[in-house]
Specification:
The protein is mainly α. 73% of the residues lie in helices and 0% in strands.
Length: 275
């Protein structure tokens, strides 16, 4: 009796072995991982553009408030403010002309590169210094804060421009535009809140604005370093009504910019994301 070997079982075993080896090294089907990676990329792309869209929205209030601040730091504001009929007179003797003479130095100092001697060297006609030491220290602190605020403004504008370029090239401009409109709506809400605080503080209860003003200063200054006597030059040049109107005009300017973005931009032709 002879044993006749057959190759079928061996061929089947070899085939199964090669199949298992192929699975171990990922050679079974290369198209599946590529498809998975493509699907993952397609899933991540909308998430990334949504995040960038909300980043645009967050930058809009910074950009608009920074723009309002920069406008207020020009001679335009104090030239108008000092000429308003309701602006309080200085009980210690500054005339409107005196204020218009000395205020430009304080405002210019905040945006130029000069040191504190720019203000420290100013003197009245009798030779006495315009500002005392406490006022000079405060103005140096204010300059640092203004410089930081303006730098944040520049950065916010630069990032918005960069994101606009990336949105154009990456075909997600409709998400970018949504971010602008959303940021405009946020700015409207913030502006209305600030305007309401100032308005009520002017017309109804001055303590409301004073509490807001105190809170604002507590964020940036230590202790009572920002408080002065009514006879000090800073208070005589910039009484509380000056700051009430400054915050009010900042809110109005930012509100205008927010409304322009929220309602002035044309909707994208593609499917819009909800604001």
């Amino acid at each position: 009796m002879f044993f006749r070997p057959t190759l079928a079982p061996y061929a089947s075993a070899v085939s199964n072995l090669l199949h298992n080896i192929g699975d171990c090294f990922g050679t079974k089907s290369k198209s599946v991982p590529r498809n998975d990676e493509k699907k993952k990329t397609e899933t991540m792309k909308p998430n990334l553009t949504t995040i960038l869209s909300y980043l645009v929205s967050l930058l809009i209030p910074l950009a608009l408030i920074g723009t309002a601040l920069r406008i207020l730091l020009t001679p335009i504001f104090f030239n108008i403010e000092y000429r308003m009929p309701y602006f309080p007179a200085d009980e210690y003797g500054f005339t409107q002309q005196d204020r218009l003479q000395w205020a430009p130095f304080a405002v210019e100092y905040l945006v130029n590169s000069a040191d504190i001697s720019y203000l420290g060297d100013l003197k009245f006609e009798d030779g006495s210094p315009l500002y005392n030491e406490r006022e000079l220290i405060h103005m140096a602190d204010v300059k640092n804060i203004v410089r930081g605020a303006l730098q944040a403004w520049y950065v916010s504008l630069a990032i918005l421009v960069l994101l606009a370029v990336l949105a154009r090239r990456g075909n997600w401009m409709h998400e970018y535009m949504n971010g602008l409109r959303r940021g405009g709506l946020w700015m409207i809400g913030l502006s209305i809140a600030i305007g309401a605080i100032v308005g009520v503080g002017i017309a109804v209860n001055p303590d409301i604005f004073w509490q807001f003003f105190t809170f604002f200063h507590s964020i940036f200054f230590e202790g009572d370093s920002w408080l002065f006597y009514f006879s000090d030059t800073l208070i005589r040049l910039f009484p509380i009504r000056f700051w009430q109107d400054a915050f009010l005009w900042a809110a109005v300017l930012a509100l205008g910019g927010g409304a322009g973005l929220a309602f002035g931009l044309k909707p994208s032709s593609t499917t819009e994301q909800s604001v």
